[in-house]
């Protein structure tokens, strides 16, 4: 059997061994409820506070402005729905983009069902939102703008700082989903001028089931869970300390040159495909994209057939967001970038690189992919 090669890190990442150790150690040694006042609770509280401090520092925020959640989806929902509901007295207009993760898009669609007016911004052929388009859709009753930092399907990096500057004098709060950016791009919430930011641990070689929402103090957010005073009433429920400690460990393992390492994998991958004569087109612009993601269309091919044959060759890749796995519909991201009947939508595959890879695997993956393309043609 051929060695399996994992090229789907944008969907999820393997947990780092040191992260697994951190989670296991916490499970074995620290079981107290952080809200309890006895020594077991105080020990847990100390570890929780340490983790919050580490995560806050990673985005140059104050620790009291970081709220733990069960992951990116909950954090996005809390940011979008919670902020909208809490600020309805100021207006009912929300702006987002057509290429957001479904955790934002479906939250926005829900808000429409209860009377909010949502504008879904278009993007260009590279998947980028134009700042002037944001400006042209701003209204006096706009209360929230949500634009992701890095697109999860094509890796497009959005002009977050510029949008933040645009909104600086407006009442609207600014949220960005930073799930695909965290750990690869520098994030300073003050410099970016964002009011809300969401992160998930399982994209950075941490555990599934944990993430956080950054919310600056001036933002009113209505919780959607009730039952306790944890997380300063924004997210009640006993904190999942082992998972939180795992996320903290994952963050402590960040490397300054990680983006360059993954970009080298991407470059090697494309060079190998070129050498092997594989014909493809790149969806998006690599000069303004996550170094860990490349989305390719193979002319005349079919997505389902490609993925099935790649899997038979031991190659794990994706047709887009893992949250729409199994869907036969075209990618909403590529549909926003291109015309609905564009051939590129039928054969688009996302390859994403990370901790599970090395140069030898990248070369072997390109070779197997070339064999598949040749066989299908």
TrEMBL record:
- Is Iron-sulfur tagged as a keyword? yes
Reported EC number(s) for this entry are 2.8.1.7
Cofactor(s) recorded for this entry are: pyridoxal 5'-phosphate
Q: Which PROSITE patterns match?
A: AA_TRANSFER_CLASS_5
The UniProt keyword set, sorted, is: Iron, Iron-sulfur, Metal-binding, Pyridoxal phosphate, Transferase
Q: Which InterPro entries match?
A: Aminotrans_V_dom, Aminotrans_V_PyrdxlP_BS, Cysteine_dSase, PyrdxlP-dep_Trfase, PyrdxlP-dep_Trfase_major, PyrdxlP-dep_Trfase_small
The record places domain Aminotransferase class V at 5-363
Kind of enzyme, top EC level?
transferase
Q: Which top-level group of life is the source organism from? A: Bacteria
Molecular function in Gene Ontology = cysteine desulfurase activity; iron-sulfur cluster binding; metal ion binding
Q: Catalysed reaction per UniProt?
A: (sulfur carrier)-H + L-cysteine = (sulfur carrier)-SH + L-alanine
Keyword Iron-sulfur annotated? yes
Which family is it part of? Belongs to the class-V pyridoxal-phosphate-dependent aminotransferase family. NifS/IscS subfamily.
Q: What is this protein called?
A: cysteine desulfurase
> What is the organism field in this record?
Pelagirhabdus alkalitolerans
Mind giving the lineage of the organism this protein is from?
Answer: Bacteria, Bacillati, Bacillota, Bacilli, Bacillales
């Amino acid at each position: 059997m051929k060695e399996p090669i994992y090229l789907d890190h944008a969907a999820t990442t393997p947990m780092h061994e040191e992260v697994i150790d951190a989670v296991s150690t916490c499970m074995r040694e620290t079981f107290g409820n952080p809200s309890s006042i006895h020594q077991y609770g105080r020990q847990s509280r100390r570890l929780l506070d340490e983790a919050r401090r580490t995560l806050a520092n990673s985005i140059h925020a104050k620790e009291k402005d970081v709220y733990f959640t069960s992951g990116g989806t909950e954090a996005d929902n809390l940011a979008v729905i919670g902020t909208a509901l809490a600020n309805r007295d100021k207006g009912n207009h929300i702006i987002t983009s057509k290429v957001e993760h479904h955790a934002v898009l479906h939250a926005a669609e829900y808000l429409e069902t209860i009377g909010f007016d949502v504008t879904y911004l278009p993007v260009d052929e590279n998947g980028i939102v134009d700042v002037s388009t944001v400006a042209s859709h701003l209204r006096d009753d706009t209360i929230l703008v949500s634009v992701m930092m890095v697109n999860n399907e094509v890796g497009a990096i959005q002009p977050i700082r510029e949008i933040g500057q645009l909104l600086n004098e407006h009442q609207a709060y600014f949220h960005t989903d930073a799930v695909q950016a965290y750990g690869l791009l520098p994030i300073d919430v003050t410099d970016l001028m964002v009011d809300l930011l969401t992160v998930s641990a399982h994209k950075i070689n941490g555990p599934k089931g944990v993430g956080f929402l950054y919310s600056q103090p001036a933002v009113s957010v209505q919780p959607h869970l009730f039952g306790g005073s944890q997380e300063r009433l924004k997210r009640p429920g006993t904190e999942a300390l082992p998972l939180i400690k795992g996320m903290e460990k994952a963050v402590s393992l960040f490397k300054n040159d990680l983006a360059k390492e993954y970009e080298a994998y991407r470059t090697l991958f494309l060079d190998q495909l070129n050498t092997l004569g594989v014909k493809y087109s790149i969806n998006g612009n690599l000069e303004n994209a996550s170094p860990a993601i490349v989305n390719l269309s193979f002319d005349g091919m079919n997505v389902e057939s490609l993925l099935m044959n790649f899997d038979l060759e031991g190659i794990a890749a994706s047709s887009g967001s893992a949250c729409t796995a199994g869907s036969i519909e075209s990618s909403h991201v590529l549909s926003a970038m291109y015309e609905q009947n564009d051939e590129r939508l039928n054969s688009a595959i996302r390859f994403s690189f990370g901790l599970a890879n090395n140069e030898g695997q990248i070369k072997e993956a390109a070779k197997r992919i070339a064999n598949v393309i040749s066989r299908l043609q």
